[in-house]
Amino acid sequence: MTDPEIIIIGAGAAGLLAARELTQAGRRVLVLEARNRIGGRIHTFSDGGVSGPTEAGAEFLHGEVALTRQLLEATGTPCHDTEGLTYEVRHGQLSTAETFLEDMPLLLEKLHQLPQDMPLAEFLTQYFPGNQYQELRSMVTSFAEGYDAADARRVSSFALRDEWSEGGAEDSPRPQGGYGLLLAYLAREVEAAGGQIQLSTVVEQISWRRGHVTVGCNQDRRYQAAKLLVTLPLGVLQAEADTPGHVALVPELPAYRRAVATLGFGPVIKIMLEFGTAFWEQESAAVGHAMPELEFLFSDAPVPTWWTQRPDPRPLLTGWLAGPAADLLRAASDEEILEQALSALAYLFATSPEFLRAQLVAQRVVNWGADPQARGAYAYATVDSEQAQQVLTTPVEDTLFFAGEALYSGPAMGTVEAAFSSGQQAARRLLASLA
Ligand SMILES: Cc1cc2nc3c(=O)[nH]c(=O)nc-3n(C[C@H](O)[C@H](O)[C@H](O)COP(=O)(O)OP(=O)(O)OC[C@H]3O[C@@H](n4cnc5c(N)ncnc54)[C@H](O)[C@@H]3O)c2cc1C
Ligand SMILES: NC(=O)Cc1c[nH]c2ccccc12
Questions:
Q1: pLDDT tens digits, residue range 151-162?
Q2: Domain 83-171+268-375 part of CATH 3.30.470.30
Q3: Which of 42, 62, 422 has most ligand 2 atoms within 8 Å of its beta carbon, as the pocket-test mutant?
Q4: Which CATH code is given to the segment(s) 6-42+178-263+383-434?
Q5: With left for phi above 0 and alpha for psi between -120 and 50, is residue 353 left, alpha or beta?
Q6: What is the whole-number distance in angstroms between the Cα of residue 189 and the centre of ligand 2?
């Protein structure tokens, strides 16, 4: 390719959607991607002994997802609702969960009366004080930490109010065959329109002036263009100099870095365990707690959340640890995490880690907080998010543009749809600046 007009950093959902928009508008585009694969926080894998496509990152569709649905249609990918029973284990007691939180109506009522936004932890101490509400405070905090990967001391109460008013996680369809299919399709479209996607290219430095950028990468490679779209994950933009993943800006953009620090970005550890059989379906000599038709399992175990692939009968259990609890394990080895996961499962199913190990066919631990190209899983709103997003979505001198799930200001920040939508918006702004 002759020199590109536009460089895009990152071949995730935001970067690839933007690249398609720009190449199809006739622009010369070069996408630089650090990893040896496309997709970023979408990673559908089939290796390592699993019996089918398995999601290491994004897995579910959240709410209205117009752009995602268009891509599902274009690729002929059907979507399956999850189905089955939700169980709960607390203090060693197994039950089927009727409702997530009995006091949800009361919680929502207080949230809707709240005149001014504040972090969740502050809201709970102020509006639900004392011993009487101890259980409520702890359940609500665990939910925000465990689902939104948020720190309760920072996450916006208004954002949670809006999320919970919409019914939360009840419907969780999945693309059959995985999200990876959509990203592979986008990459094909980009290449068909003349765009280039270059893998294993780690951007280390962005030097810029109005109308010109030089991007310095590993192996002393340099690329130049008139405009740059940065889709680096928020965690990478938050990384300080001399920490893994850091990308230098020359000259620096202090107001942008401050905005980046204002937004929340939480870690997730996902543990995929495939077994010889779905041993949880019936009670046996080895398994004290059977959970027939298990879909979701919520608990007080150190790895608290688990799910199956129902309606797909594959004997795969996915463990999920997020927020401050995942933060504590950022530096832990995968083997340590696997051990914790197996001992959590032993408690939950009233069995032994040895029994579980003997049943294990394939395993994978993905510690997103420890990944230098992500440094976390997804963004959450803080009290000052809106202003910060306004700063970050304003192009710098019509030369530097930013996109990514964290910059999407609609109701589903932190999702694949948010990333697609933010990529599309940034591409359109960029095109307008070229007109
Ligand atoms: C465990 C997990 C579960 C999730 N579950 C869901 C879910 O169920 N549903 C949902 O909708 N969303 C989910 N999400 C969120 C969703 O995956 C993200 O919001 C979305 O994929 C982000 O896309 P993006 O393009 O903004 O960022 P990314 O996908 O992170 O793309 C950025 C790209 O930049 C690259 N990069 C980083 N550093 C450099 C560098 N120095 N040089 C060059 N390239 C670099 C990265 O490798 C990456 O490919 C989940 C995320 C995680 C981690
Ligand atoms: N299991 C999930 O879908 C987690 C998730 C991804 N992005 C989010 C945004 C908000 C809340 C949860 C999520």
A1: 999 999 999 999
A2: no
A3: 62
A4: 3.50.50.60
A5: alpha
A6: 28
